Amino acid sequence: MAAKVIYEKSRGLKDNPLTYCPGCSHGTIHKLVAESLVELDVLERTIAVAPVGCSVLAYNYFNCDGIQAAHGRAPAVATGIKRVCPDKIVFAYQGDGDLASIGTAEIIHAAHRGENFTVIFVNNAIYGMTGGQMAPTTLINQKTTTSPYGRFEETTGKPLLVSEMLATIPGAAYIERVSVHDHAHILKAKRAIKKAFEYQVEGKGFCMVEVLAACPIGWNVLPVDSMKFVRDQMMPYYPLGVYKDRANIGGKGGAL
Amino acid sequence: MVFSGFGGQGILVLGEVVATIAMKKGKHVTWIPSYGAEMRGGTANCAVIISDRVIGSPMVQSDIDILCAMNKPSVDKFLPKVKDGGLVLVNSSIVKDDFSAICEKVNVLEIDATNIAVEIGNPRVANMVMLAGFIKKTGLFTLENITEVLYERFGGARSKDLIPLNVKAIERGLE
Amino acid sequence: MSKKVLMKGNEVIAEAAIQAGCKAFFGYPITPQNEIPEYMSAHIERRNGIFVQAESEVAAINMCYGAAATGARVMTSSSSPGMALKQEGISYMSGADLPVLMVNVSRCGPGLGGILPAQGDYFMATRGGGNGDYRTPVFAPAYIQECSDLVFHSFDIAEKYRTPVMILLDGMLGQMMEPVEIRPTPPIEADKSWVVDGNTDKRPPNIVNSLSLLGDVLEQQNLIRFEKYAEIERTECMVENTVKDGDEIAVVAYGVPARIVSNAIEELSAEGIRAGLIRPITLWPFPYDVFQNLPASVKHVLVAELSMGQMVEDVKLGVNGKYPVHFYGRCGGMVFDPSEIADKVREIIKGHTPAEPVPRNGKPSDRCTKHTKGGAQ
Predict the structure, then answer these.
(1) How many CB pairs below 8 A link A and C?
(2) Which domain does A41 fall in, by range?
(3) Partner of C340 for a Cys bridge, out of B153, C277, C278, C336, CB 3.0 to 4.6 A?
(4) Region B124-149 average pLDDT
(5) CB distance B32–C172 less than 8 Å?
(6) CATH number at residue A141
(7) C-beta atoms of B57 and C2 within 8 A
């Protein structure tokens, strides 16, 4: 009896072993992005932008053209690519240190200009690659290597709500926050990511999907507990949902 | 040579017109404006060099051959730098200085430019009235040369209609 | 009739770039280079190009990084403090071997400084303000015709060697007008097999990258890149040298100040003092060899810069102790006039001025020459 394939690795990913830590959410999110590109039949005309962060090596994993960007500058690099190659599919895959700290100017102005590319924003409330330092998205009282006694609001502010902020920008077409801590949420995240690419194919403008993600090594918890942390600690502060959808407010150019 | 006046008197354009005519006559030319803080001070000036040879420094820091001064600060700033025997064109509608003391050293031509320009309908063509001084005193170029450059430079739909007035200004200046 | 037109240096650079096939321009406003983005915004899109006014110089150079990675001819321009911000991107583009033309219409500093002409960016341009081992070819035009010609040449050099290239000028040249004939040359046929332009249905995926975590791999990449730099040093150096047998002194200057020096040389020759001009057109690679091959009559070398002395260090490397090297500089936006240079030469010839290094016992040194004459502006 011939074997029947019921599941296989997406051809949107190269056959390279992932170097992410055990329990890290990046692998799941990579898979969702790769599947979306294949399902939309755009993989061969896609260019991935991987800036500094844990996902800096993403160009080794996505099976398409790839470019590595300086810390925080992925939206500027993506702007350069997309403006010259408007018929290609361009996405930036950014972490929270990258997008919400050093790259705030670049992300805000890419949204502001309504650049027609897709941003996957992986929010794990910490700087993972550099060893678990405090990010703008770190939760209050969360301990990190640069907030060893917990994050204090008095001196470091409250965690930055990026999706809420970008949704206020007229140029943004689609902003949604999702999570990948369990199967049901992974399926929802997949729909959001695929939609963000569909909108780009249709030329709707700037799309960003914020994905709440786990960093068990950076948080110093077991992988299973890291999923619970996303659900019990992050989701109450970072509510999931659609923050902006141009489909609901008229076509391209629709005002907020 | 140095062209100097208030911002808005068309002083940079005046220099540009002269430089363009010289270029068309096959001369080497440089035109360099004052830029930066001075622009905000309300005075503008540009230096033009015309030469048969490759031009070294584009700056005119001393030994000015021709000074075209449209206001008082321009006279004060650049008159001391005009070389002996040089030509000074002064907008006498605005500058009321008595030049008799220096007439030995430099050749001063007082032109009632702003008043003539107002007479023919627009004070903004005072710069063109000053050009008449160039034609009269230097023989470097003719009214036809200027007209040609004006049509090339300002022949666009929006500014074309203003050219006859500018030409008229030069003609009045020549009278 | 001449085909020449009277144009500003900044506008000539923009127009020449469009004619050279510049596909995309990314910039940010800063005086005194604003005519470049202004001209681009008015003209490049009508000629099938891209203009984006970025949110910052940092973003602009990173947009160049992305656009250059697709194989397009791209360009940015700025002025001194803006170029300082671009150093991140310049280092990344050097590390990723990406071609880009960068124009620095420089002003005086440090810090916000002022907008008047200066040459204090020589170190930043030739040594690189960015991190890591890299070099940047730097062209320094002195004439507006040269601005135009060097734009075509710079794009070719950038693509031939896959490197960022800079044109360094000062505000005088950017703001002044001279007759110019824009003389397009066909772009070189450059290898574009490495680009990331999203065509993986025709070829395997490409990666543009400056990350290399393995020491032996990165060392090898740097060694290969420095073979490229060695080739540039061998073949791309440009210099104007008017020093002739019988000249007592060689005066070294670049950009518009070299033109001021040429006036001084003329003034001196009238009184029998013979001097020649050495005008580096490439600041990197620097024409070191010129200083080992001067006529036997030369006894002194004088460097004149609108800075406190930066290129003078390269001249000393070239001279290598063979001649006394003297320096005359103005800064802060002050521009020396020909008589200042002529006076300095007279001093040197008469032997009154010690060559550097001079004792620095609290007194003004040769380097801090006391100025009695103001420059124009």
Answers:
(1) 139
(2) 26-245
(3) C336
(4) 90
(5) yes
(6) 3.40.50.970
(7) no
